[in-house]
Specification:
The protein contains 4 helices and 2 strands. The protein is mainly alpha-helical. The chain binds zinc ion (ZN) (2 copies).
Length: 100
């Protein structure tokens, strides 16, 4: 049973947990931005190099990442052939949509 959260009190602001609870104040949004930047930096640091390119092997739980998706390219910094292709496709799709 979860009661509706009153984000204006009882919550510490400037925290990711408060942001995910629904608060969108400047402090909480900044906390999320820093958290995301840090997460991406750590994910990038954990990449392996395959064929001279950065390759994201597994997520934080050790589960193998799915390749050939724009999210693995963007969130994990994978630059394998499949992910680069997916990212290029994604960009092409955006361009097509914008031309319509
Ligand atoms: Zn807040
Ligand atoms: Zn990949």
């Amino acid at each position: 049973m979860t009661a509706a959260l009153d984000t204006s009190r009882d919550l510490a602001h400037g925290k990711v947990s408060t942001y995910t609870s629904g608060c969108r104040c400047t402090e909480c949004r900044e906390a999320l931005r820093l958290y995301t930047a840090d997460l991406r930096a750590r994910r990038r640091a954990a990449r392996a190099t395959v064929n001279g390119r950065p390759f994201a092997t597994a997520d934080q739980t050790g589960k193998a990442l799915q390749h050939g998706t724009p999210s693995t390219y963007q969130n994990w910094g994978c630059r394998c052939f499949s992910c680069r292709l997916a990212q290029a496709d994604d960009h092409a799709n955006h361009r097509e949509r914008n031309q319509l």
